[in-house]
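Technical note accompanying the year-one report. For the benefit of new consortium partners, we illustrate the data format agreed upon in the data management plan: each record pairs a sequence with a structure-token string. No post-processing was applied to the example shown here.
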Amino acid sequence: MKKIIFFGIILCFLTSCQQQEQPTISFYYWKTIFRLSPKEKNTLSTNEVKRLYIRYFDIDLSDQTHKPYPRTPIRFEDATSGFEIIPVVYIKNKVMLDKKLNVLDLAQKTNNFIQQINSKSNITIQEIQIDCDWTLGSKDNYLRFIEAFKKVSNKKLSATIRLHQIKYFKKTKIPNVDRGVLMYYNMGKIAPDSLNSIYDRNIANRYLSSLQHYPLPIDIALPIYSWGIHIRDKKIIGLRNKIDTRNLKNSSSFVPTKNNWFTVRHSNFQDGIFYKENDQIKLETISKNDLLEMANDLEENTKQNPKEIIFYDLDEFNLKNYEEGLFKKVIDCF
């Protein structure tokens, strides 16, 4: 009887530990040159980051040949020792929409290019991630590409998953990968209205309950980036990355009109962009409270805790907007 009680206590203890296991912190790196600033290095160190998801290249369709080709491949200037590197390949959906696409050829060429980059930079990998917002029209090509790529690469494979692919997985299908990463951002349309297209809790709530029924193990990617939507005559004319709110506030050419909105007082150039008098800039940002809210909502709606929270993306411009201990506070929610 004592033995039964003893083993019961051990079982309860192990179950409790499993339930309380927190995700690890990782980051996406989405620049074309891998070179870490002191601030970026400090963030990786203080958060005990072991894995970096590095965008290796994009795959687009050539305007001339209408065939897939790699765009803006990564160049490594800093060593990656101390980190497990997961190459990420972003494939534009129009590539998968091509009815004449040679899926096996694309899989082989994609894998060969990853190997070339790794060989040149002396990087050994165990996993590759494919990032593609596939649709019903591109589904068949995409799923066949995943099957082919898994065979030719002979690596663990992960894939990014969007909220609509979670909710409607019976239609969009599930790629044959080892795990998915839910991209918990870019939820709304980029529009000249008051909504935040990066994160909108009302939109997220339409999909959250579906997480409990999704068959594939998933980790979570959370946003720490911002951008400005450039509006002229109520029409969007561009998306402006890395706009510093303080620079706008300190400039006589921009006038704050409401929360995160600025109106151009005088026509001017900023960072090579022309802003015409009466243009508007709508800043979309992610606050500390947004991140904690996301984490709490996700924790309440997932069958089991994710093993990893991946923040998008590691960049000094993004990091300066958050207190040093925030990323650990986010994973404490799980």
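Partners are asked to follow this layout when depositing records. The first strand starts at residue 24 and ends at 29.
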